What does this fold into?
Amino acid sequence: DSGVTQTPKHLITATGQRVTLRCSPRSGDLSVYWYQQSLDQGLQFLIQYYNGEERAKGNILERFSAQQFPDLHSELNLSSLELGDSALYFCASSDGLAGGLQETQYFGPGTRLLVL
Amino acid sequence: AQSVTQLDSQVPVFEEAPVELRCNYSSSVSVYLFWYVQYPNQGLQLLLKYLSGSTLVKGINGFEAEFNKSQTSFHLRKPSVHISDTAEYFCAVSEYSGYSTLTFGKGTMLLVSP
It folds into this structure.
């Protein structure tokens, strides 16, 4: 158990819909990262937040957005869903104290999204 | 931009045999290197990481990896595998500059049979 929790575990929805995925980082961790894992694209970094502020952006679509709240939990919002958005979405956290360069990221169990 | 190539998508091996999972990276700057393991229906877990210093890195569960700068490789090895090592293994790289965003390889499925 990494200490990172993600809800829900599974999500089934229809094309065009909007969903919100939630992540609670390990106690004390200030950085949160979101990743998408799909069969064709592999594991891709989406976005990182540090203490409420966006720090780095990867291959995140404009239809997707995220935020980190004062209690440090984070939400990933996916809108206008398409079939190709079906994937496993991981959240990871790190303590953020080393400036990012040497930190170990601890991964949650993921949310499996199926868009029908 | 950094990239990671895992040369084998699947590696079948018998229990108690040695195994090597290959990883090559590409980057224009110095990097940090990581190996993560993903057991079925679970998230990723860090096996080991190379930040600096000794090029031979020891990790959990008896795994080790060697950083070879000239060959831009970071191969993962275990001298004797167990059935419980069956999992997907991901090599990842993070550049020195900027923040620690990880770029992952496509993964290698290690299949250990009796």
About this structure: Chain A is about 0% helix and 50% strand. The interface with chain B takes residues 2, 4, 33, 42-45, 48, 50, 55-56, 58, 90, 92, 94, 99-110 of chain A (CB under 8 Å). The CA atoms of residues 37 and 43 of chain A lie 4 Å apart.
